[in-house]
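=== RUN LOG ===
request id: a7f3
mode: sequence -> structure
chains: 1
length: 112
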Amino acid sequence: MTKFTIFLILIVVVAFLLVIVIMVQNPKGGGLSSSFGGGGTQQLGGVKKTGDFLDKSTWFLATLLIALILLSNITIEGAGGVSDSKALDTEETTQQPVTPPATTDDSTDSGN
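=== RESULT ===
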């Protein structure tokens, strides 16, 4: 298993967790905390902190995802800047001369 494969698996896992955490949240501030009675003014059993946990975990997973993507770029084979492309090579820009097609001598005897 290469380093890139390991990074790819970690990226998929973190992206899946990020989707789960975002889907649990409610855009109006309710989400998981509102299902435990967080809609009122009284907070029971630390439910108010559930929203803070989901918010912090979203930022953490998003930052981790970006870091993993940037680090995986380092592990790609051939990312050292070595270019084997002939199209970008300016030192060998010689053109080969075009030769005309060969003609036959049969065209002069067409009259007889």
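=== NOTES ===
Residues 41-45 have pLDDT under 50 and may be disordered.
The CA atoms of residues 36 and 45 lie 9 Å apart.
=== END ===
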